[in-house]
Description:
Layout: E1 24-25, E2 38-44, E3 47-53, E4 59-61, E5 72-77, E6 80-84, E7 88-94, E8 100-108, E9 125-127, E10 133-138, E11 148-154, E12 160-167, E13 171-172, E14 175-176, E15 183-184, E16 190-195, E17 198-199, E18 207-208, E19 211-217, E20 223-225, E21 231-232, E22 240-249, E23 254-263, E24 268-279, E25 286-287, E26 306-308, E27 314-318, E28 323-327, E29 335-341, E30 351-354, E31 359-364, E32 369-376, E33 379-382, E34 388-389, E35 400-403
Parallel strand pairs: 1-34, 21-25
Antiparallel strand pairs: 2-3, 2-35, 3-4, 5-6, 6-7, 7-8, 9-10, 10-11, 11-12, 13-14, 15-16, 16-19, 17-18, 19-20, 22-23, 23-24, 24-25, 26-27, 27-28, 28-29, 30-31, 31-32, 32-33, 32-34
Amino acid sequence: MTKVFGYSILIVGLALASTRPAFTQITDTPAKTPVPVAHVYIQTKAGVMAFATAANGTLTPVPGSPFKVSGQMEDIRGKVLVSVGTTNLHSYQMEANGGIGKQLSEIDTASYGGSECGGTSGQGSIFDHTGKYLYVQLDAFPDSECSSWQSYTLEPDGAMKFLGDIVSNNIVDGIAYGSFIPTVSSNDKFVYGSFPYWGQSSSLTWGYRPYFLAFTKTSSGDLKINESFEHADPPPYEGYTYYPVQVQADPFGHLAVLEVGTSSTGGNIFGGQLASYTIDPSTGAISSTSTGADMPTVLNIDDNAMKMSPSGKLLAVAADPGLEIYHFNGAAPITTFSGWMSFGSNFQFDQLAWDNDNHLYGLSYSAKLLHVLTVTPTNISEAPGSPYSFPSSPYGATGLIVIP
């Protein structure tokens, strides 16, 4: 039986609260559904579960779900799904109804440059905006002495061709760190991310200090380290420096960056704050006019999932526990919208995604739940039937994919 999640509206902001969260049990028995506004894919131990989203946010299983794929699903472009194994990349045919069909191709990353840094499993990858170029991260943290990115073309028939590799600059004190999954600038020329670092750097004491990762896309489509990259960060509070934890691009040449303020003793201020940056369209350098006084504070910091809406007007941040949604205003300061939304004690979203019809999807691995929210610039509500439970645990660096 489908039940609707209960929620309350607080005076301090729009907030969802649940005292006894009902949920929809997902089964393998599909029902009739109208033309979907999106397809949703969840990686579980039973396979990739696929759903069609109705206009009101209700999910219906795609016939044949769950689908077996090799390795970890990474992304879908056009009629092709790409998954990543320990070293192999696989491509699968996408069916008209949203199902996953036969394998189209397979390529071994260990046969190419950059493989000396480790395997691909669990490291994450990203497509450019054209969907033609795929960038895959390789490392074996904490045992690897390097971290690299390989570039591939994805052909219309699903075949993948190696373009080149780079050893990235995310090495601190001789230790190579893999990055969080990065984001692509709106002009499709630059790639930004951050990589975590927990340790001692130069004369500073031990603490958490992530760093920016910056690439540029060449005319051939492969990635190179952006040697022109500079970042003018918000002026910090006295005695602190801002470091990036998560980075998301909007469609208009800006970045939203979740920053952690760290002192010379390694202490964090307020858990984290959100800054907006403007991208130089020629060099890829970024600069911010945000200040510590006007940057909103995120409830907690713990490898937060963060996702920009397709419109570039809303930013969702997993607040550990719960969720926060903000108004993103381009170069202007980010402003609070929802306040903290609670989904139960210790509830954490591991993956977030949007479609083009005002739906925000939040996946929790530990709770085995997918929440679907309808979010506009003025209102937030839980979609009918949400949340949805899974009999098999979701997982993965990209455990949730939404295709509008």
